[in-house]
Amino acid sequence: MEKLKGILKRNNDGFINIKLDREVEGKIFYKKTVNDEEKFLIDFKSNEVGFKDPDIENRNFYIVKTEEEEIELAERLIPLSDFCNFRDLGGYYTQDGRMVKWGYFYRSEYLKELDSKDLRYFKTLNIKYVFDYRSKSEVNDAPDMQIEGVKNINIPAMESADGNNENLDMEAYMKKFMSGSATISPKEMLRNSYKVMPFGNEAYKKLIEAVREDGEFAILQHCTAGKDRTGLGSALILLLLGVDEKTVIFDYLESNKYRKNDNAKIINTYSKYIQNEEMLKVFKEVLGVEESFILESLNEIKSRYNTYENYFLQEYGIDSEELFKLRKKYLY
Question: Where is the Tyrosine specific protein phosphatases domain (predicted)?
Answer without folding.
Answer: 202-274
